[in-house]
Specification:
Chain A: This is FAD-binding protein. The complex is a heterotrimer of chains A (about 475), B (about 450) and C (about 425). With about 450 residues, chain B is of the alpha/beta class. In chain B, about 50% of the residues lie in helices and about 5% in strands. The two termini of chain C are about 30 Å apart. The chains are: A alpha+beta (about 475), B alpha/beta (about 450), C alpha+beta (about 425). Chains in contact: A-B, A-C. The complex binds flavin-adenine dinucleotide (FAD) and iron/sulfur cluster (SF4) (2 copies).
């Protein structure tokens, strides 16, 4: 690559304020929120901070011309290393494209640039009676573009669905430099659902430059309950009981003892520190119905051995309870210098045995594991705590987390519920997918990005080459030509 | 892909006041702090974010970046030390601590120009080192402001020549009276609820004497004896933030000596920056045999006036004050001391007063100690943003609780030709009391 | 060997894998296949596909045949693969609210099984006993209940599909929240079987509401009716479906009411449903001529009929067009549609899915030319328009998927990758893929 020439051309596109090529400054783009022990450091060759979709398009065209890899990045809160420029090249940071372009109150949607911060969109639409339902715990910092790329979830996704359910359309710059709109405010755009395919593709199929999101009406009433239990087991039972009762809470979150302690130290959210586990349950909807369901939920929790059930009375109390939950991962820094977060989903009914297994593995590997998770959809997040300077710990962590993943897969679960595969989990993909499965996905990738310049080395296992896909294609082409000749 | 398995040898940092590596690596780079960081919000560059700055420190500690890399110094000075990042950090990274240590490192290891040395000497040793000298200098300044000399200097362009134009604009109006820690004692009115010492400080004592007076009135009205104990000095914050912790320690010892009396219930501070500093003496003096323990006892008693009143509750009912105000959070109150609810609770306790929240109320106004002198560009960008947000509320007054912020806001308003006043929260309370019937039976009010 | 011979040989071999007798029953827009085969296992399907692929047989995967009105005229039609023998409910976990079902299972069969455990998929079609799950997903049809529960697309958590090469691939899994790998479910949803043959689908299912009521309100004027419907949509009330029908449409679903009719469905626990229906009635009453509340079976029946008037089944001498438009603009669209038939002898009925933002217009006429012209005019309205069903004569020289979307090049590339020999539904999908 002719670096000099590339730099100059980029400079012309984004201006001196939009390009970073000083290797020292590039140091601060070699990480995201994933643990560096496992993700490593990956310094891009050049970072650009475009302000418009036109600039993004020019950048991508240029990358094509020079044949250099492109990696999109939002706020860098991703936990799977998906925003790391593993093969160097151009890192496209989207945070400066942060305008809310349109809010359509009547029809309940908004058009935003991808750098808009998740929470800020909800704050902006709240006075108009709307919110953006996907609420990852990182919502104070992460971008809508990142949410789209990772199909992020959050506590309220239990009732409202994940990001994918809230994206109506996308403007995207494809790897070949073409810029298109997919979807739109009315459903069922004809043809292949490219919007649906792009959501969750972790920035490997294009750069999103505008997002049309569905806004959700604020519920008439909200009620947050905190139920304390002696252990995870009884809290899990309460979870099942609530779901089985036909009540669909807006959120149903669980935290174990270790997490409660860390969170209390950080924010004094008022969680009972002696509890073995707590459930945070939010109910919303029409006032009378919420009140009724709340009574029923209290009953169910008591029936499963809740030692205490509290109701947040004021918005402030509610906020505090949520703040504790939403800061839980970050608060792990108070317990140990490093943590490895395993994000997996198991069928809801498999939660109790899975929790038991996690506990056993924690003992077996002599590693502290904190648990905080979206119990309602069986999406668990064991946080394995460690210190990378303690000899041998890293290996134990690796073995422990692999065992956890393997167990989850064995009981019908999956690798990642919401954080994505990225760099970190790509080598686990073969635990759940066969070569045929992966080849079909590789086919999808190639259809968008035949030169494989977009966010390379993500999602697919290292060294994965889908010779098969190529073989099929070549065979098929020959055949067709043959037929034409006859 | 496994990085550095063995404990990194600390490369770049050396000497005294080394940023603690365990604090640096308690950052899990989650990015939660980015949106609250004023410099990041303005530049959008990761290097100007808390996470980026911590990573730079880490890179130095791990030997991947040179301590004297201009990038590092630039970031360490561009940071406002507003500590908004600390307040939202779920991991509890003690950012202020490692920032100040990093600055101390730069002062230690970086060759300084003669001008810088002179500035430091004049500022930190001569002026702030002794309160008598500080007041004398202030009297001169007052003369400068009132005598027509200033007008002359402004017209003549000499200020621009001296590179002092900006400093002049920001210069506080010096009051005609100073509050001096001279041993005065003001007894409680009504039922006595305790005894407190007022921390006088530097700028508050000269430019904001009226705020001190208001503080004394409000405290006595609420049943507290107030003592102005002699021997106290500057809090030392400017020294510590400026990379000169040693001078800061000198000030700290002196204040502990003066105010460490067992006979007072609390040391009351009405400048958020000073309060935050006084509360951090235990860290500053952690390696000082004689003072470490005393610093802990001392700091445990330090309270911001707002914090104190909210904690103990108002025993006297304020009178009505029919006005609309907006509240600007001083960083060192909101972030360093995490005092955010109490000011609002006190304002809400005043009948007929309406509080309208401004957007980004917790974003730094760009004052940050002497920052506006060092990084005028960033400071004025932030000031503009702040004033826009404040004025958008349509409030009749901006309420704050720190002299630095108040100066900055006043200067900005003046430059825009805006007339709305900037008031200290205690002043507002004082006015409300002035509007209350004097002999009203005391009823305990729960605030906060 | 000649082309013909290769073809015949492939057909002969495929026939041994489960040939069926009545090719005439598998007509697509006037074409009938040379062979119909009904594999009874995924393995058999794989083999059939790879044989068909090698020989380049124009292949149409066949479900219940109830939505065959959708699609462009096929370029050719050699082989129909009837999937109804692949109809197992592979795994049902009521406590996890998940089910895995083979593509050939009918909506009715699956519904019965789920219903026994108080669960459901929120789609209603009168042809439930014939409509297969695979067919529904391939055509991407979802009813007005998508407003309350999401479209089927939103409930899909896993998929298994066979590629023309014979390769069997999966995406997703059996958990309700999953971001491992690309979303292959959405790739195939609504792709009309043009990228692969759907073998199995995994869904998250929904607890069947314990009660339901439908508020029906009639208005003389469209604007009043629309205003009422939009007002509910804009409120914090939470009906699961909101539709607006013109008189003819209303008649079609068994509502004998004049003017414009708004129907709003409430589902949930009995008391909640009652309150919700009461509050909705209050909102819609002021300008209404008549307000009625249907309960239980009566309500359910209405919505099944509604499902019938939005499907893509063959209609004889009529066409049905689906037009997307934002909910607040739908009333205006309804009027535009009316105007569009000026000068044509067509009978028009309109159903507006106010909850979701779709309009279904059904137009009947004696002459193909009238229908053709009607479609031509309608195809330019709204944000997008699809000719859901039409007599073959009307489909000549048009793309039933309407205007070409910006992503057509990517769609072409996808087709090229997955079905390079173009054996799956050749010519029938968008852009004649
Ligand atoms: C403490 C903490 C808690 C978290 N909690 C949750 C949670 O509850 N739920 C959850 O789902 N996630 C959670 N996350 C993970 C993370 O915040 C989300 O994945 C988030 O969506 C990432 O957004 P980002 O803007 O930081 O994206 P980045 O991390 O910068 O990037 C993530 C991916 O998006 C791609 N990308 C970014 N912008 C674009 C664009 N415009 N176009 C195309 N691709 C783009 C990148 O290439 C990368 O693949 C958490 C993270 C942290 C640190
Ligand atoms: S919030 Fe704390 S842990 Fe997270 S990046 Fe900022 S300083 Fe680091
Ligand atoms: S102290 Fe303020 S300016 Fe400095 S990094 Fe933290 S938030 Fe940013």
């Amino acid at each position: 690559m002719d670096r000099q020439a590339l730099q100059e051309r980029l400079l012309r596109i984004v201006g001196p304020d939009g390009i970073i090529d000083d290797p020292d400054e590039l140091l601060v783009y070699e990480y995201d929120a994933s643990d560096e022990v496992f993700a490593g450091h990956h310094r891009p060759d050049i970072t650009v901070l475009p302000r418009t979709a036109d600039q993004v398009q020019e950048i991508v065209k240029l990358a094509n011309e020079f044949g250099v890899p492109v990696t999109p990045r939002g706020a860098g809160t991703g936990l799977a290393g998906a925003a790391l420029a593993v093969r160097g090249g151009i890192l496209v940071v989207m945070t400066r494209m942060n305008r809310v372009l349109e809010i359509n109150e009547r029809d309940g949607y908004a058009i935003v640039e991808p750098g808009v911060i998740n929470l800020e969109l909800s704050q902006l639409t709240q006075p108009r009676g709307y919110f953006f339902a996907p609420d990852p715990s990182s919502q104070r910092a992460c971008t809508i573009g990142g949410n789209v790329a990772n199909n992020s979830g959050g506590p309220h996704c239990l009732k409202y669905g994940v990001t994918s359910n809230h994206i109506l359309g996308l403007e995207v710059v494809l790897p070949n430099g073409e810029r298109i709109w997919t979807g739109g405010p009315a459903p069922e755009s004809p043809g292949i659902d490219l919007t649906g395919v792009l959501v969750g593709s972790e920035g490997t199929l294009g750069i999103v430059t505008k997002v049309m999101v569905r806004l959700t009406r604020l519920p008439e009433a909200v009620n947050v309950l905190l139920a304390a239990f002696a252990d995870l087991e009884s809290a899990s039972q309460a979870t099942s009981a609530i779901i089985a009762s036909g009540i669909l809470p807006a959120a149903l979150e669980m935290m174990d003892h270790l997490t409660i302690k860390a969170v209390e130290a950080a924010f004094h959210a008022g969680y009972p520190e002696d509890a073995g586990a707590v459930l945070l349950i939010e109910l919303d909807g029409l006032a009378e119905i919420v009140a009724e369901s709340a009574d029923r939920v209290v009953e169910l929790c008591r029936g499963c051995g809740a030692t205490e059930v509290r109701v947040a009375r004021t918005p402030r109390e509610r906020e505090l309870l949520w703040l504790g939950r939403k800061s839980a991962f970050g608060a792990m820094g108070r317990l140990a210098p490093n943590y490895y977060l395993v994000d997996t989903t198991v069928p809801r009914t498999k939660l109790p045995p899975t929790m038991r297994t996690v506990e056993e593995l924690s003992r077996e590997y002599r590693l502290r594991i904190a648990n905080v998770f979206h119990a309602g959809d069986g999406n668990l997040h064991p946080l394995v705590l460690f210190d990378r300077f303690v000899p041998g710990e890293i290996e134990r962590v690796l073995r422990c987390t692999t065992d956890i993943l393997q167990y989850c897969v064995d009981v019908g679960g999956t690798l990642s519920g919401e954080h994505g595969i990225g760099l970190e989990k790509r080598d686990y993909m073969t635990l759940i997918f066969t070569t045929e499965d992966l080849c079909a996905m590789a086919g999808l990738k190639r259809s968008f990005d035949p030169r494989e310049l977009f966010n390379p080395d993500k999602v697919f296992p290292s060294g994965f080459s889908c010779g098969e896909v190529n073989a099929i294609r070549q065979q098929a082409m020959a055949k067709r030509l043959g037929i034409e000749f006859v | 892909m496994v990085v550095a398995e063995e404990r990194a040898v600390l490369h770049g940092f050396k000497g005294h006041d080394v940023p603690e590596f365990d604090v640096i690596r308690s950052c899990v780079h989650c990015g939660f702090c980015l949106p609250v960081c004023p410099t990041y919000r303005v530049t959008g560059r990761e290097r100007s974010s808390p996470r980026g700055r911590i990573w730079l420190m880490k890179s130095i500690a791990e030997g991947r970046l040179d301590l004297l890399d201009p990038l590092f110094e630039d970031e360490m000075t561009l940071c406002l030390n507003c500590r908004a990042c600390e307040a939202v950090c779920p991991s509890g990274v003690r950012y202020g601590e490692i920032l100040e240590a990093s600055r101390a490192q730069l002062v230690q290891h970086r060759p300084q120009t003669a001008k810088e040395r002179l500035f430091r000497f004049l500022g930190f040793q001569v002026l702030l080192g002794d309160m008598r000298r500080f007041r004398a200098a202030n009297r001169l300044l007052r003369l400068y402001q009132r005598s027509g000399l200033r007008a002359l200097a402004r017209r003549s362009g000499i200020l621009r020549l001296l590179g002092m134009e900006h400093a002049d604009r920001l210069m506080p109006e010096i009051s005609d009276r100073f509050v001096v820690a001279d041993g005065s004692f003001y007894p409680a009115l009504g039922e006595r609820r305790g005894r407190v010492a007022l921390f006088v400080g530097c700028v508050m004592g000269t430019s904001y004497a009226h705020v001190h007076e208001a503080t004394v009135r409000v405290l006595t009205r609420n049943g507290f004896d107030v003592a102005l104990i002699p021997g106290q000095g500057c809090c030392g914050a400017l020294h510590v933030h400026g990379g000169d912790p040693e001078s800061g320690r000198r000030q700290a010892r002196r204040n502990i000596d003066a105010l460490g009396s067992p006979y007072i219930d609390a040391v009351i501070v009405n400048a958020a920056g000073c309060g935050a500093m006084l509360k951090e003496y235990p860290h500053l003096l952690r390696d000082d045999h004689d003072y470490a323990e005393r610093a802990r006892a001392f700091s445990a008693k330090v309270r911001d006036a707002i914090e104190f009143l909210a904690e103990r509750g108002l025993s006297a009912q304020p009178g009505p004050l029919p006005m609309t105000v907006t509240y600007q959070e001083p960083c060192h109150l909101a972030h360093a001391q995490r005092i955010t609810r109490q000011p609002r609770a006190l304002l809400e306790a005043i009948p007929e007063l309406k509080l309208v929240e401004m957007a980004e109320s917790a974003l730094c106004c760009g004052s940050a100690g002497i920052y506006n002198l060092l990084r005028p560009e960033m400071a004025s960008t932030l000031l503009d943003r702040k004033l826009n947000n404040a004025l958008a509320t349509g409030a009749e007054a901006i309420v704050s609780a720190n002299p630095g912020c108040m100066l900055q806001l006043q200067a900005g308003l003046r430059a825009r030709g805006e007339r709305i006043p900037v008031l200290h929260l205690i002043e507002v309370l004082d006015r409300a009391y002035a509007a209350a019937p004097a002999t009203r039976p005391a009823e305990a009010l729960a605030a906060g | 060997m000649s082309d013909r011979a290769v073809l015949q040989q492939a057909l002969d071999r495929i026939a041994t894998l489960g040939a069926r007798q009545e090719p005439a029953a598998y007509e697509v827009d006037g074409l009938t296949p040379q062979l119909v085969v009904a594999p009874d296992s995924p393995a058999a399907l794989q083999e059939i596909l790879s044989l068909a692929n090698e020989a380049g047989l124009a292949t149409v995967p066949w479900g219940g045949g109830t939505q065959m009105g959708l699609g462009n005229l096929p370029r050719a039609f050699d082989l129909a693969i009837d999937l109804r023998k692949l109809n197992a409910i592979v795994q049902y976990e009521p406590d996890d609210l998940t089910v895995a079902v083979q593509a050939g299972c009918t909506l009715g069969e699956l519904g019965a099984k789920l219903g026994a455990h108080g669960q459901m998929l929120p789609v209603d079609f009168p042809t439930a006993d014939r409509t297969t799950i695979g067919g529904l997903v391939a055509t991407g049809l979802s009813g007005p209940r998508r407003y309350g529960y999401g479209a089927l697309r939103d409930l899909l958590i896993g998929i298994t599909f066979a590629l023309p090469s014979g390769q069997l691939s999966r995406g997703g899994g059996m958990v309700v929240k999953n971001v491992s790998g690309y979303d292959m479910m959405r790739l195939h949803y609504g792709a009309l079987g043009s990228l692969g043959v759907i073998v199995q689908l995994n869904f998250k299912v929904i607890p069947k509401p314990r009660a339901e009521r439908t508020v029906v309100a009639a208005y003389r004027r469209l604007s009043d009716a629309a205003e009422a419907a939009l007002q509910v949509r804009f409120s914090q009330l939470a009906p699961t479906a909101i539709v607006l029908l013109d008189a003819l449409s209303a008649q079609g679903v068994g509502l004998e009411m004049p003017g414009w009719v708004v129907s709003l469905r409430c589902e949930g626990p009995a008391t909640a449903v009652q309150r919700q229906a009461d509050r909705i009635s209050e909102v819609v009453r002021p300008a209404a001529d008549r307000v009625e509340v249907l309960e239980g079976h009566e309500s359910e029946r209405l919505w099944t009929e509604v499902g019938g008037s939005i499907g893509a089944g063959r209609l004889g001498r009529a066409i049905r067009v689906r037009i997307g438009q934002t909910p607040s603009e739908l009333p205006r669209l309804a009027e535009e549609i009316d105007r569009a038939r000026t000068g044509l002898v067509v009978e028009l009925s309109r159903l507006l899915d106010i909850g979701s933002g779709l309009c279904y217009a059904t137009l009947a006429a004696e002459r193909d030319e009238d229908l053709q012209l009607a479609w031509q005019r309608l195809s330019g309205l709204g944000l997008h328009a699809t000719l859901l069903t039409a007599p073959p004569g009307v489909k000549v020289d048009t793309d039933v998927f309407g205007r070409q979307p910006a992503g057509l090049a990517v769609m072409r590339a996808l087709k090229e990758t997955f079905d390079p020999n173009r054996i799956l539904n050749p010519g029938r999908f968008i852009g004649r893929l």
